[in-house]
Amino acid sequence: MENKFESKSIILALSILIGLFLLGFFIFKGLKTFSDKDRVVTVKGLAEMNMTATLATVSLDFSFSGDNLQEIMKQTENKKNAILNYLTNIGYNKNDITINNTIVTDREKYYEIQWQNNQQVQVKINRYTISQSLTLQSKDVRNTENKIAQMKLDLVRKDLTCNVNSEYTFPELNSIKPQLIAESTKNARIAGEQFANDSQAKLGKIKTASQGQITIAGQYYYDEETSEKPKEPYIQKARVVSTIVFFLE
């Protein structure tokens, strides 16, 4: 009987001892976890990416003015046809050229008041103005600017002077947004790991993360914080900075 009682006592003592050990272990882990919540590092991750235009649009604008509507309509038509012939001769397809609607302005007043020799005088102005524009599109975005420079010279030589401008169509930001965010998060983790190593700690999980606004730098946009603005008009640089808070273990 005494042996059975002693065995039960030993088992009970061991159970209590193991229980106290486990209780102490979990209390220690809980306190450590609680204390680790205050050990965090905040880092920023930068990501920049160049976007190349997918389409170039070139516009050619000109106008004539006068009092004889039929005459300036004929001038406009002749110049339009001459420019079309020039564009097709240098390799542009007619299907890529759009002739926009002709705009005719008819002024109600033929005179306007101007200051001359310190006095107001009535000056006659042309009654009609006809504006015409043509647009062409090209996927050869890298060579568009060089072609425009040559185009301006050729048109001047042919007495077909007009305003020549270019615009570029870029990919949607949503198409590169996931890659930008992933890159900025990766760079933030690299910075966090460097800090953790210097602090003789280990980088843990993400506590909080916030993505900054995506900014664009290029011919049509300007961002002071971007490292370098692209010189080519057909390239834009997208930039994002993510702020991430990591736990330190």
Characterize the structure shown.
- With 249 residues, this protein is of the alpha+beta class.
- 37% of the residues lie in helices and 35% in strands.
- The chain is built from four helices and eleven strands, in the order αββαβββββαβαβββ.
- It has helices at 2-36, 69-89, 144-157, 177-198, and strands at residues 40-52, 55-66, 97-99, 103-106, 111-116, 119-124, 128-138, 163-169, 203-211, 215-217, 235-248.
- The strands form three sheets. Strands 2, 3, 4, 7 and 8 form a five-stranded antiparallel beta sheet that branches. Strands 1, 9, 10 and 11 form a four-stranded antiparallel beta sheet that branches. A two-stranded antiparallel sheet has the order 5-6.
- β5 (111-116) and β6 (119-124) form a beta hairpin.
- It is elongated.
- The two termini are 53 Å apart.
- The mean pLDDT is 83.
How is the biggest beta sheet arranged? 5 strands, antiparallel
Task: Report the strand count.
Answer: 11
Shape: elongated
Low-confidence stretches: none
Number of DSSP helical runs: 4
The rounded Rg comes to 37 Å
Q: Would you list the SSEs in sequence order as H and E?
A: HEEHEEEEEHEHEEE
